[in-house]
């Protein structure tokens, strides 16, 4: 700006041109203050003139604000005194349009500078800035006013936690005057803060300090302001937030807002209530505070607007609130503002929608306070609370209610609401249709009135449990009575609905008619438990009935009878007339059983041709037998089969038991009694009495003992000698099974053979005896005095004969013991030979091929035909002892024996007579030419050693013969 003496004149001119076009306010004044030069902008500002030469100008002193003139003159004087030092100036000047402009800048004395030789004025127009500053001051005052009017206490703290501002509410809440607080740290203040539980909040934990340390806001911290004694005088809810940050981003100013919640804390008794109110209050503390003028322009808005509506505060200042309000809510808003202006003291909160910065609508609740009379506020202070969440919940709730109502009315399933006492208080149309009542009619009833008696206890129990809180819900299948009186099956799902306190409020039942399904299931269940042919209950159902009857008997101390009915000649009908005819008989028999029994008795089909009748209540065994007799008689009537009259008959076993009876055992015993009835000639009734019971007990005991007998080697063979009729020599022995049973002595086969058969042990037993017999043959051979060896015969059971490897077993027994095959004889009863012809004959032939002798045992008891006998490879025929015992008594007997002997001889067999007890028998047999004999007359079966002693001995047959002959004469 100060060209030197050698300045380029062109450059000087250019500079002058730039200056002349610039908006810079600058000029050069003479020592007396007269302007020597002013830049165009300065010229315009100070004179209102443009394009004038400075020489023509009169510096318009009168344009300077009179109040500023003296100061300006003083500054000019100062500048003159201090060459080259810029002296600040500040004055107002009247612009051409009549407005006052504020000018600020410097005067610099450059009079000594040869290039200038004047005082340089360098100023700026600061009018706008000052206007803004004064607006800001006004706004700050308004802020202050708002702050002062807030019920919330506000404390601002700056660097180091020093308090830089606080409002009256805060002073009051903390009980400290502002003067005491300002420029101290919160720690320096003598107040103690405590938590709800009474413990002191350490300094670092106080909201302001926490926020200062972390930079994070603290929300709704509840604390008590306590005196030195720890007595809490006030409860506060505090929010802390960083409002200004340092350039490095650390918190600079932290604002704490305090809400006095003492009333809430102290007045509420229940903690829940406290908490609810806390929530409300805490929600309140995050409200937006705004001030609007009567034209609804926003003149102030608090920071919460950012969080809630998404605007910056400055964005909204001066904006008309109308722009934010939903068109539909304008009318109400205007009305509320009008009321407020009229001075309504306690205006109702207004709900309105405001536009969020993102364009969506938010529900807020507005509460205005008329502060128009307050010159600093000059508006309506409005508290705005975000209630969009509440509205959303309300809307959802409403929608849910509508949906429920829809569902309730139109649901295809029944829906009913019940009170705790079981009464319906709402029912839907579907439920009404289900039960045939109108809704009004149903509301008179409790569910108990309409529930089937059999379902009632269970249902009531469930209902009570839900109201006691034991069950949140339950499902039950039950019967409801329709108005028409008939029952329907329903599946009911009941949920308990709680009130807001969580207590059971009412129960909600969803009811589906499942009658058809139940009927279908019942039919299936019936079919599964009833015989398709006779329609009688089947075994399992019958056992259920029996169990029930026994339970009843226990209660009544009465007796239960069961009848086990086995048809006698059913097989014959089936075999001769076919299954269809057999079925007819079964159906007829079932009908007769049904008729023969008393009411309450159950007749069932147990299997094939077996039936069982359960009589739940009989006086005694005699009554049961009488019923059985009646049943027997009814079945003894002829059955008409294909036009033919047939007699079927039945054997019936009866069991009577008290409550202690067990279904299984009773059935088994009844079966045994029926079997006994069959044994005793069929078509009769047999009571399972003490006798049968002990027989059964003995049988069971024997079975147990016999199973052990084989392992313990308690079984052995005794040998009964067979002597020749002619000379009395011992030619062989029959090996007979004996059991040396502990505690019983030597026991004969009559007592254990049946058990051996039943248990299947007869096979291993028989095979062992076969080997023992072979070993004995070898010993006999060694002991025989004259080198002759007796044969030994062994009895074969039916099971053994059926064994596939019988022949191999016999062969290996012979081979391993070294017994000569022709010394072994195998006895098979005539009745056994009659069964299973082809394989039996094959087996016998293969045994015979080994060289073993075969004997027909008990001959005369079966009905073998001559032609059949002829085909058997048998070598010996044993006349059954029943014929021998008759000899000498009945002349007819001798005739039979004679023809048997003749037959045997005719077939090339030897003949042995069994059961020779008396001399008379011997004499007759000798006369008839029987070859050999065995019997007590000679010897019983004896142990092996005793038998060995008999070898070579001669029984005095001749003498006996003689005496026998004599006695018979
Ligand atoms: P069985 O084969 O007819 O045997 C003859 C039975 O008559 C034997 O009875 C014998 O002791 C008996 N006895 C012999 N002499 C006389 C007499 O003068 N008067 C009378 N009243 N009886 C006499 P035991 O030993 O009680 O055997 C009975 C049946 O048991 C045998 O009849 C036989 O069928 C069967 N048995 C015996 N041992 C065995 C065996 O090891 N295996 C098989 N499967 N059955 C055997
Ligand atoms: Ca025998
Ligand atoms: Ca025999």
Arithmetic mean pLDDT: 84
Classify the secondary structure makeup into a structural class: alpha+beta
Spatial sequence of strands, sheet with the most strands: 29-30-32-33-34-35-36-37
Our estimate of the beta-strand percent is 25-35%
Describe the global form: elongated
Tag the structure with descriptive keywords:
binds calcium ion, six-stranded antiparallel β-sheet, 969 residues, disordered N terminus, binds ligand C2E, 36 helices, alpha+beta, 43% helix, 26% strand
Question: Could you characterize what this model shows?
Answer:
- The longest helix has 23 residues, at 127-149.
- It is elongated, with a radius of gyration of 65 Å.
- β29 (715-724) and β30 (730-741) form a beta hairpin.
- The chain is built from 36 helices and 37 strands.
- The chain is an alpha+beta fold.
- α21 runs antiparallel to α22 (621-636), α26 (762-783) runs parallel beside α28 (806-817) and α34 crosses α36.
- The strands form 7 sheets. The chain has an 8-stranded mixed β-barrel, surrounded by 4 helices. The protein has a 6-stranded antiparallel sheet with strand order 7-6-11-10-9-8.
- The structure holds ligand C2E and calcium ion (2 copies).
- The site of ligand C2E has 24 residues, from β30, α26 and β34.
């Amino acid at each position: 700006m100060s060209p030197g003496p050698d300045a380029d004149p062109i450059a000087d001119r250019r500079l002058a041109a730039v200056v002349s076009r610039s908006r810079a306010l600058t000029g050069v004044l003479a020592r007396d203050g007269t302007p020597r030069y002013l830049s165009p902008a300065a010229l315009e500002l100070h004179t209102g003139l443009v394009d004038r030469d400075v020489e023509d100008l009169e510096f318009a002193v009168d344009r300077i604000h009179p109040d500023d003139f003296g100061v300006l003159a003083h500054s000019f004087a100062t500048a003159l005194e201090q060459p080259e030092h810029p002296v600040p100036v500040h004055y107002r000047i009247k612009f051409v349009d009549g407005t006052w402009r504020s000018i600020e800048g410097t005067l610099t004395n450059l009079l000594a500078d040869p290039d200038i030789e004047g005082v340089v004025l360098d100023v700026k127009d600061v009018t706008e800035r000052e206007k803004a500053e004064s607006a800001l001051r006004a706004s700050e005052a308004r802020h202050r006013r708002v702050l002062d009017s807030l019920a919330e206490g506000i404390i601002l703290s700056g660097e180091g936690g020093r308090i830089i501002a606080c409002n009256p509410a805060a002073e009051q809440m903390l009980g400290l005057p502002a003067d005491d607080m300002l420029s101290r740290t919160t720690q320096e203040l003598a107040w103690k803060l405590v938590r709800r539980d009474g413990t002191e909040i350490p300094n670092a934990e106080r909201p302001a300090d926490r926020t200062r340390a972390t930079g994070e806001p603290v929300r709704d911290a509840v604390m008590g302001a306590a005196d030195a004694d720890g007595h809490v005088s006030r409860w506060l809810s505090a929010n802390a937030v960083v409002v200004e940050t340092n350039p490095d981003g650390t918190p600079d100013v932290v604002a704490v807002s305090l809400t006095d919640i003492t009333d809430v804390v102290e007045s509420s008794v229940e903690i829940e209530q406290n908490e609810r109110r806390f929530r409300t209050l805490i929600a309140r503390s995050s409200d937006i505070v705004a001030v609007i003028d009567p034209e609804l322009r926003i003149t102030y808005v608090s920071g919460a607007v950012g969080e809630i509506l998404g605007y910056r505060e400055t964005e909204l200042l001066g904006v008309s609130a109308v722009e934010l309000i939903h068109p539909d809510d304008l009318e109400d808003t205007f009305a509320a503002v009008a009321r407020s202006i009229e001075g309504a003291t306690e205006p109702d909160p207004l709900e309105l929608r405001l536009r969020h910065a993102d364009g969506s609508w938010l529900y807020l609740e507005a509460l205005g306070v008329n502060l128009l009379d307050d010159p600093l506020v000059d508006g309506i202070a409005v508290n705005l609370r975000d209630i969009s969440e509440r509205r959303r919940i309300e809307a959802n709730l409403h929608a849910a209610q509508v949906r429920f109502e829809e569902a309730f009315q139109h649901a295809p399933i029944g829906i009913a609401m019940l009170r705790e006492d079981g009464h319906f208080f709402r029912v839907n149309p579907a439920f009404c249709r289900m039960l045939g009542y109108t809704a009004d009619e149903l509301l008179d009833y409790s569910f108990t009135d309409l529930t089937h008696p059999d379902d009632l206890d269970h249902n009531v129990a469930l209902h009570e449990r839900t109201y006691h809180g034991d069950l949140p819900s339950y499902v039950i299948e039950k019967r409801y009575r329709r108005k028409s009186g008939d029952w329907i099956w329903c599946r009911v799902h009941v949920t308990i609905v709680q009130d807001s306190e969580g207590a059971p409020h009412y129960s909600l039942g969803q009811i589906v008619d499942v009658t058809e399904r139940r009927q279908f299931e019942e039919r299936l269940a019936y079919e599964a438990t009833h015989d398709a042919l006779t329609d009688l209950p089947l075994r399992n159902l019958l056992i259920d009935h029996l169990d029930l009857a026994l339970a009843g008997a226990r209660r009544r101390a009465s007796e239960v009878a069961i009848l086990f009915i086995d048809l006698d000649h059913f097989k014959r009908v089936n075999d001769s007339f076919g299954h269809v005819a057999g079925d007819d008989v079964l159906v007829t028999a079932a009908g007769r059983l049904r008729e023969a029994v008393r009411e309450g008795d159950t007749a069932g089909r147990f299997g094939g041709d077996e039936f069982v009748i359960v009589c739940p209540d009989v006086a005694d065994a005699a009554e049961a037998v009488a019923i059985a007799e009646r049943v027997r008689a009814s079945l003894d009537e002829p059955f008409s089969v294909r036009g033919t009259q047939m007699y079927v008959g039945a054997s019936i076993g009866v069991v009577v038991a008290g409550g202690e009876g067990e279904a299984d055992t009773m059935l088994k015993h009844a079966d045994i009694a029926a079997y006994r009835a069959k044994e005793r000639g069929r078509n009769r009734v047999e009571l399972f009495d003490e006798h049968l019971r002990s027989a059964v007990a003995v049988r069971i005991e024997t079975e147990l003992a016999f199973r052990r007998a084989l392992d313990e080697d308690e079984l052995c063979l005794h040998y009964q000698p067979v002597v020749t009729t002619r000379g009395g020599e011992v030619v062989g022995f029959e090996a007979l099974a004996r059991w040396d049973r502990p505690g019983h002595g030597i026991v004969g086969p009559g007592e254990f053979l049946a058990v051996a058969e039943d248990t299947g042990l007869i096979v291993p037993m028989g095979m062992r005896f076969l080997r023992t017999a072979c070993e004995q043959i070898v010993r006999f051979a060694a002991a025989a005095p004259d080198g002759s060896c007796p044969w030994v015969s062994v009895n074969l059971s039916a099971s053994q004969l059926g064994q596939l490897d019988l022949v191999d077993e016999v062969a290996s027994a012979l081979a391993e013991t070294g017994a000569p095959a022709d010394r072994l004889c195998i006895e098979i009863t005539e009745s056994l030979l009659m069964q299973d012809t082809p394989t039996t004959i094959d087996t016998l032939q293969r045994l015979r091929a080994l060289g073993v002798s075969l004997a027909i045992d008990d001959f005369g008891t079966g009905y073998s035909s001559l032609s059949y006998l002829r085909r058997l490879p048998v070598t010996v025929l044993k006349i059954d002892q029943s014929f021998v015992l008759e000899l000498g008594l009945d002349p007819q007997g001798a005739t039979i024996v004679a023809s048997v002997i003749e037959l045997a001889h005719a077939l090339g067999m030897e003949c042995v007579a069994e059961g020779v007890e008396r001399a008379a028998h011997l004499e007759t047999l000798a006369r008839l030419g029987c070859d050999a004999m065995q019997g007590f007359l000679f010897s019983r079966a004896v142990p092996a050693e005793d038998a060995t002693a008999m070898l070579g001995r001669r029984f005095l047959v001749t003498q006996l013969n003689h005496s026998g002959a004599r006695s018979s004469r």
